[in-house]
C-alpha cells in the first residue's frame, strides 16, 4: 500500500528543529511602552537648502571683477593731478588682464555662479582693448628696415652691442643714451653705415645719405634730433628721441612732469614738420596707453600695433613688462615689427620694416 506523501518514510531521519536567528530584529510589542533609549531615525539634512546658493556666493569676487572692468574702461578718468596716478595705471594697463584668470579661479573655488558671470565682463573689455595685439599681423615686403635701441650708457660691452645691431640688417639705426662710449659706437658701426649724425646722447646711422640734421629742443641738454634720410625711394624725415626718465616713490608717486613737458615739445616739432613721410623712433619712457604722451602718439601710428605680433615688450630686458621703446610713423606703411635679441643693455632693441 502507498505511503502518504506527508508521512515520513521509515528510513528518513527526522528534521532537527530550526535554531533561533540571533541577528533578527525583535518584533516590537504592540502593547509595550516606547523605549526612551531607543535611537530615533535620522532626520533629513536641511543644511543644503538653508546655505547660500550658487547665486548668493562670491559677491566680493564679483565686485572686484566689476571694478577691474571699470578700471580698463575708465582709465582715462583716473586723475593725473596727484602722483600721475592715471599715467601709472595706463603704463601697465595690459597687465590688468591677469585679474581675469585669478578671479575666475576664485569663482570656481567658491562655486559661485554670480562671480563666474561677473568675470566675463573684464574678460570682454580686455579683449576689446588688447585682443588685437595678440594677433600676428606681420607681412612680407617693405623698402626700409629701421632699428632703434637704448644702448644704456653703462653698457659694459658697447662694441659687442654695436656689432649685434649692425648684423640686424637695419638700413637705418637709431641709438639712445650714448654717453661716453659714443666714439666706440662710431668706430664699430663705420664699416656698415657710411652716414651718421650724433646730437648729444642720441645718434642716427644709415646706409643712405643723411642731411639736414639738427637738434630738437626738448630738454636742457640734447636728447632728440631730426634728420632727412635720402633713401632710393625718396627722402624720409627721421626723428630720434629719448624722453626724460620717470621715477616712482610711495611719497611722490609717478614723477613724470619733465618727461611730459619734453613730449609736448617733441609733439610741436612733429606738427611743424612739412614732410609727410616721417618716422619717430626712440625711448619714450612710457607706453602708447599713457595719455601724457598723446602729443606724439596721437598724430602717428605704431608699427608694432599695426604690423607686430604680441605686445613687443622692451623693458627691462631681463623680464620685459612694458614697451617703452617705439617706432611711430606717418606717410609710410609698416609691414612688420619685432623685437631683437637682448644685448648688454637693459632695453631690448626694436625693429620695423616699412613700405615707403
TrEMBL record:
Alphabetized GO MF terms: catalytic activity
SUPFAM superfamilies: DNase I-like
Region spans: Disordered: 1-52
Membrane spanning residue stretches: 60-80, 92-109, 116-135
Domain Endonuclease/exonuclease/phosphatase stretches: 147-347
Annotated keywords: Membrane, Transmembrane, Transmembrane helix
Annotated protein name in UniProt: Vancomycin resistance protein VanJ
Coiled coil: none
Biased composition annotated in UniProt, kind: Low complexity: 29-40
Superkingdom field: Bacteria
Pfam families, per the entry: Exo_endo_phos
Amino acid at each position: 500500500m502507498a505511503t502518504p506523501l506527508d508521512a515520513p518514510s521509515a528510513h528518513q531521519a527526522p528534521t532537527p528543529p530550526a535554531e533561533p536567528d540571533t541577528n533578527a530584529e525583535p518584533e516590537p510589542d504592540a502593547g509595550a511602552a516606547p523605549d526612551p533609549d531607543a535611537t530615533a531615525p535620522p532626520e533629513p539634512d536641511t543644511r543644503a537648502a538653508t546655505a547660500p546658493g550658487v547665486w548668493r556666493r562670491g559677491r566680493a569676487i564679483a565686485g572686484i571683477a566689476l571694478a577691474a572692468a571699470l578700471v580698463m574702461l575708465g582709465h582715462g578718468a583716473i586723475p593725473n593731478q596727484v602722483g600721475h596716478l592715471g599715467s601709472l595705471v595706463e603704463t601697465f594697463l595690459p597687465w590688468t588682464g591677469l585679474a581675469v584668470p585669478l578671479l575666475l579661479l576664485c569663482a570656481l573655488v567658491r562655486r559661485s555662479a554670480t562671480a563666474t558671470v561677473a568675470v566675463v565682463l573684464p574678460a570682454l573689455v580686455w579683449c576689446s582693448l588688447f585682443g588685437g595685439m595678440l594677433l600676428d599681423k606681420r607681412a612680407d615686403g617693405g623698402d626700409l628696415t629701421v632699428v632703434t635701441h637704448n644702448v644704456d650708457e653703462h653698457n659694459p660691452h658697447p662694441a659687442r652691442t654695436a656689432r649685434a645691431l649692425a648684423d640686424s640688417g637695419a638700413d637705418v639705426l637709431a641709438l639712445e643714451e650714448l654717453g661716453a662710449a659714443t666714439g666706440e659706437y662710431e668706430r664699430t658701426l663705420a664699416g656698415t653705415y657710411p652716414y651718421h649724425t650724433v646730437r648729444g646722447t642720441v645718434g642716427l646711422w644709415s646706409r643712405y645719405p643723411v642731411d639736414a640734421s639738427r637738434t630738437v629742443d626738448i630738454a636742457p641738454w640734447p636728447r632728440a634730433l631730426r634728420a632727412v634720410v635720402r633713401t632710393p625711394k625718396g627722402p624720409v624725415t627721421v626723428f630720434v628721441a629719448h624722453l626724460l626718465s620717470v621715477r616712482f616713490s610711495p611719497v611722490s608717486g609717478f614723477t613724470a612732469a619733465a618727461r611730459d613737458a619734453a613730449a609736448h615739445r617733441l609733439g610741436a616739432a612733429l606738427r611743424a614738420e612739412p614732410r609727410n613721410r616721417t618716422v619717430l623712433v626712440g625711448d619714450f619712457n612710457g607706453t602708447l596707453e599713457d595719455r601724457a604722451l598723446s602729443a606724439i602718439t596721437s598724430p602717428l601710428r605704431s608699427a608694432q600695433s599695426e604690423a607686430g605680433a604680441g605686445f613687443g615688450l622692451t623693458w627691462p630686458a631681463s623680464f620685459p613688462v612694458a614697451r617703452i621703446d617705439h617706432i611711430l610713423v606717418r606717410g609710410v606703411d609698416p609691414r612688420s615689427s619685432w623685437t631683437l635679441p637682448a644685448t648688454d643693455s637693459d632695453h631690448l632693441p626694436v625693429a620695423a620694416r616699412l613700405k615707403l
